[in-house]
Amino acid sequence: MEHLTLAQFLGILIAMLGSARLCGWLARKLGQPAVLGELIAGVIVGKSVLGLVDPKVEVIHLMAELGVILLLFTIGLETDLRQLLRVGPTSAVVAVAGVALPFVLGFLVMKAFGSSNIIAIFAGAALTATSVGITARVLSDLGQLHADESQVILGAAVIDDVIGLIILSLVSGLAQGQELSFLGVGKTAGLAIGFLVVVILVGRIVVPPITRRLARLTMEEGTAIVPALLLALGLAWLADLLGSAVILGAFAGGMLLVGTPQHHDIETSVIRLGAFFVPLFFVSVGAALDVTTLNPLDSRNHGTLLIAACLTLAAVAGKYVCGYAAWWFKGNKQLIGVGMIPRGEVGLIFAQIGLSSKLLDEGQFAAIAIVVMATTFIAPPWLKALMPDIHKEGAPEELVAIAELTSHE
Amino acid sequence: MEHLTLAQFLGILIAMLGSARLCGWLARKLGQPAVLGELIAGVIVGKSVLGLVDPKVEVIHLMAELGVILLLFTIGLETDLRQLLRVGPTSAVVAVAGVALPFVLGFLVMKAFGSSNIIAIFAGAALTATSVGITARVLSDLGQLHADESQVILGAAVIDDVIGLIILSLVSGLAQGQELSFLGVGKTAGLAIGFLVVVILVGRIVVPPITRRLARLTMEEGTAIVPALLLALGLAWLADLLGSAVILGAFAGGMLLVGTPQHHDIETSVIRLGAFFVPLFFVSVGAALDVTTLNPLDSRNHGTLLIAACLTLAAVAGKYVCGYAAWWFKGNKQLIGVGMIPRGEVGLIFAQIGLSSKLLDEGQFAAIAIVVMATTFIAPPWLKALMPDIHKEGAPEELVAIAELTSHE
User: Fold this and answer.
1) Could you tell me which chain A residue has the CA closest to the CA of B4?
2) Of A6, A140, A332, B228, whose CA is between 20 and 30 Å from A107?
């Protein structure tokens, strides 16, 4: 872990925020969501091109994590629990199908390339978890968070993160030579589900009276955000301590504040705080990718590229089809499948565990990284292209109106 | 440098923000500025009591530095350059007197205790620099930033930081066995003054057309802050690279944006971002202090306490008197002197350099730390007690009205 001077730290922040700003603005000029620009900004300032930003540096890593926590907190603040529960069964089916299909397809691809069972399980598992951060940000950029399809996608992405965590704990065990344990599977799943249920049940009773009391205290300008932030950070911390995902805690924290008197104030402040932290996360994701392994002119990359292409196809097809798993859903099923495509941090964590435990070689590691990269870059423009359909197919007038009102564009 | 997990990082943030919030609220309940509560919060969560927060951990240190940068940026956003230039000569006289008197008094105290010349120079130098952060925050908490006295204090504190930097570079040289060089003194002083003059002259021409152009671009909600933040971070970075103080850059950045069309939006957003970062700075300052060296029941502390008491007296008297150096100033001269009393990070840096170069022993180091602690705790309630006078003595009706309008209470 490198020691940073203040000047180096400021320089890195300037490079990350400046490039994110510029590329995000260009992406929007080209009719794409800003997050695509921020990922490209990460590729540019990261090791692939300029080498200015190393996302493994502790302070950058931790501030990027704060970014994803704030992002999920904002999403939680815009999530109507009743609507989420209404789409709950649909989300669950989409999530389960969206984990199973890419896993099986990824497993088969690796077996076809002659890999061992354990490597095939690893590669399949790395394809399972949707990056809720990227999809949520795209939906938010497009002003579509309140559409039924978006709620199904977000619900499924949250469930799929829970499943991803379970698989991760299993696969980490495999990497250490442990055998699969039903007890371990049950414990991880129970913790994540129990955490969400308990937090929401208890929070619905405890949070409103506290926020009413806080509303009566005099506060300095702009500091009403701090108690809300403490709730989000506290639940994220608790989730992490319990062995669950921090983003579950942050998301639950946001949902608990929906409908409180300070809801609007808090959201305004969190968005401003997020304007600083959230781009750090997306630039970090971009900076972690090494695009030199994509150069097709270098014949050493051909094997990796072929595996990567097949895995990417498996990753995209698996999620695309899962949108149709909820056959009874009246909205745009294609949109749901495409919304589930982006992989991100969880996929990269799988790849990193595989590499550090010597199960995956450099090529297999790069192939998984390329899948994450490709799915991340494919989804935003695809979602954007599909979005006009939401207005034509099935979305009630009222939802379209809300979506337009809350649009940030 | 300890490696932090995400859960540890979140836990530290929660401890810092939560205790700052609670103690800040209690301080206000008792009629004191919130910053006093935040410093006490730091003592509680720091090594003196709970040991939860170590301000030397890289990520905490760097985020606290961002806090002081944002604080000075906010102060800059509320600083009228014309008013500052009007009080400029007064500030300069106060600053020079406020550096010279504590230095001489501190030097004499250490000689009286039988110290060598170099140790006496070190201790005297550690008493010179006012902590502009603490004073500015108190004045802001009291809604008095626009009063003439406040402008004199801020101007003097900025000048005094420049002088402090020069002395620091000289004393560091001494600690390494170098001799005093007039060339070195001139270079450090020239850089700091030149930086401010060039940035303000160039910025006054370059910044307004850029902000007008940016105002015409569509932006996502809440992200108008990013270009402004890039200006502040960029100037802070530049100041640091040139060997000057980051806070000079941040302060200049704020001043350049006064009067631009986005001024109000930027200020609103920076205050919200500051609500997160600024308390981290004050809690860090509190957490760095070891109050166990103050225990008078432990006879091992008596020598240290006696030196500390004499140095504190020298530190307080030296700055108190400097308020009267500008004999022609019509405002409250006592208020100016008291506003210059708080020492902070710069004093602690002196102490740390002295300790690590083996010039100061543990007792002398602790004595300087106690001076920083004592002056920091004395000034806020004293300023608060003096503040009603500003309304009685000499402040024009108009300024009182502005002060009341901009009051955050």
Assistant:
1) A58
2) A332
